[in-house]
Amino acid sequence: MTCKIINLPKITDPRGNLTFIQFSQQIPFKIERTFWTYDVPGGETRGGHAYKTQEEFIIALSGSFDVHTIDKEGKSLKYSLNRSYYGLYIPAGIWRHVDNYSTNALALNLSSTKYSEGDYIRKFEEFNKISK
């Protein structure tokens, strides 16, 4: 399975727009954990890991940032997230890091599993060994 941009419902209204996520209609996993990153200083990079089993969906609720991915075949892609009505689905086994945060960027991450340090692959060399 590969990463993909998933468009979310966008209900427009003169009073303000509304977007929502419902399991199985927009994302392919049940949400077990939600976290967000914000106040990332200019020039900083977040991530720099892969997950063994966890799937993830990342949305730029405010501002913008770039998500760089590397799959098991070594193919690298960059996804620029800058709208709150779509997000990036990242399946398990994909290396990622996030950079180029704009001022006041707010990244929402939805995860398929609860936090488990044992699910992380934090060394790129280990990721390469597992991937081959």
Summarize the structure.
This protein is 6% helix and 43% strand. It has one helix at 124-131, and strands spanning 4-7, 10-11, 18-19, 33-38, 46-51, 56-62, 65-70, 76-81, 86-90, 95-99, 106-111, 120-121.
Description:
By secondary structure, the chain is mainly β. The strands form three sheets. Strands 1-9-6-11-4 form a five-stranded antiparallel β-sheet, with no helix packed on it. It has a five-stranded antiparallel β-sheet with strand order 8-7-10-5-12. It has a two-stranded antiparallel ribbon with strand order 2-3. It has one helix at 124-131, and strands at 4-7, 10-11, 18-19, 33-38, 46-51, 56-62, 65-70, 76-81, 86-90, 95-99, 106-111, 120-121. Helix content is 6%, strand content 43%. The protein starts with a strand and ends with a helix. It is globular, with a radius of gyration of 15 Å. It has a single domain, classed as Jelly Rolls. The mean pLDDT is 96. A hairpin with a 6-residue loop joins strand 2 and strand 3 (18-19).
Question: Oligomer, anyone?
Answer: single chain
**Sheet with most strands: strand arrangement:** 1-9-6-11-4
Low-pLDDT segments: none
Query: What is the straight-line distance between the termini?
Result: 16 Å
Structural class: mainly beta
Residues in helix, %: under 10%
The helix count comes to: 1
Strands, total number:
12
